[in-house]
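We examine the record.

___
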Amino acid sequence: MIPSMAPAPADQAETTTAAAAPARNAGRAAITRFSRHRLFTSPSAVAGLVWLAALVTASLTAPLWLPFKTEDQDFTAVLSGPTAAHWLGTDELGRDILSRIFAAAVGTLGTSMLTVIVGVTLGTILAMAAAGAGERTEGVISRVTEVMMSLPGTVIILAVIGAVGTNIPVVMAILGILMSAGIYRVILGQAKSLQSQLYVDAAKVDGAGPLRISLRHVLPGLANTIVVQAALIFAVGMLIQAGLAFIGFGPPIPQPSWGGMIQGASQHVYDAPWMMVPTGAVLALTVLSANAIGNALGKAPNAAAPHLPSAAARRQRAKAVAAIAAAAPVHAAEDGAPGGRAARGTLSVRNLSIGVDNGVRLVTDVSFDVEQGTVLGLVGESGCGKTMTALSLLGLLPSGVSVTGGQILWNGRNLAATTDKDMESVRGREIALISQEPMRALDPMFTVGYQLTATIRRLRGTGKAEARKEALSLLEKVGIVDAARILKTYPHQISGGMAQRVAIALALSGKPKLLVADEPTTALDVTVQAEILSLLRALVKDTGMSVVMVTHDLGVVADICDQVAVMYAGQVVENGRTAAILDSPRHPYTLALLAADPHANHADDMPERLATISGQVPQPKDWPTGCRFAARCQFAGSACLEPVPLLPSGAGEGLVRCVKADQLAVEGMDWLATDIPASRLLEVSPQQTLLTEKDMA
């Protein structure tokens, strides 16, 4: 009889394997995160780290591998160059240069690090104390540091050497104290700025004391500055230490030091010039390595992509532009739609794809049209690709992201195949941008008037007086009553709604025909939002320009948009006339958005509970091969496992990407306000990213 427990070892093995899998995955994830650390993404920082590590390791193990002791003299090879016995040559006493360089490395690096520890620690503590303790304490600390900065550092160091002798650790510690005053001045301003942040006020309300606030909220914000200053002080400390040894105040003879070796080599610069090369090269490489590591660590870990792309990014973007230009025939840029020539002032986007350079796609096969004098709304959750699509119209995609396919047809030109230099004639003059945050679009260093007049003069080529007159006219056009006063103010002196009006005036400076508005009303209250929307409607009516409106708010779409394109996971899932889509949505995602919007329901039939959409928008790397909304859809079936094209919806001129669009329209099904029933759930396989239908009976 086979015992009933016989399968247990197999089950146990499977359980152990299943339990070990997350551990292995976690280990791989940790290794991946470590390898992607900002220190390892910079080739110069990696080279510097390898150099310093090799130098320290070789110096610490010097007694085990050095061919000669530092005091050994070979009188048969005095002032010799590199030989088989002496790889880097010998000095004036026949001592091996290689042995002396590595024997002196640890002492030089260690005492330089002592300067960093003393200087950066003292300067940071003084800065945080001055920033958090009040004006009186700050005044006292500032006066003391000013006195320290006024003292002649060289004289003080020489006085210390005269008092305690050539005790290098003590001398370098004194140097760190003197340099802490300068570090204090650098960090103080940033520490005061961090102390004024709202999260610090929230911590005070929560009962956090000054010490806790400084350590938990202020110090992490100073990390980048501290790292950069530490790298700088480390390099300066090595150079000063070498300089002291050069003038005879280094370690006592015969103990080797880099500065002493350079001083000895300087006496034989004519008869043995090679002596200067090894020690000088090692000192220079060590200083450069410290600076490279400091530059890499000083970069913010979550910083956004830089506005100005690097040379490599520009080359990559140029290749992408050239590939698109070669793939799209010239006459295609003149056709807005099959069989017809695009009217001037009409935007026609065809099969637009945007992706990370040598990586995943963020937007795929997006198509829509914006006729002159109309407003198109791009709607969808965060992460659906709306902003990327809008920024691509102006060629303002972040560094490392570029258009990988398709066409952006504007006035007979394919903007997707246009270089950055050629786009300068389009931005501002033909297509303008209203950003989501007006305070970031306005430079706080200059008045509103200066920014407006400078933009007008640059885009229109007018004189200063005429530009100022036009600036007043633009401010009045966007609804600012006291325009003359606003011209003299700085951005921080006006409200958010006023700043958004100024941003719209800036966008209108070049008389554009197309305005790209990236959620222009998100940060505004309801009253100001209504005023801004009314202003945009009036501008469209009066000037005949077109608008591409990026928004999450279906109420904004119903208020101002003539057409709407609903985006999900980098695709347009439905587009057409606004009234048709809002009244009779044919895609489940559009239906769900309307069911979840309180403004889309009348007061009489307002449900007790608004509908929700379970889950979240998938990441580009996790997009399924079939319908990208199927995993969250209440109506998904087996047909949704296959790719779904964007086809005419059967209702007017709209398009929809759903195999059940007609069925939903005929049956009139609504998005459920409760959780998804088990009969409508789909399981997602993480291994194959395929959707399998469950209990569809």
Q: What stands out?
A: The first helix runs from residue 8 to 35. The two ends are 43 Å apart (CA to CA). Confidence is low (pLDDT under 50) at residues 1-19, 302-307, 330-341, 676-697.
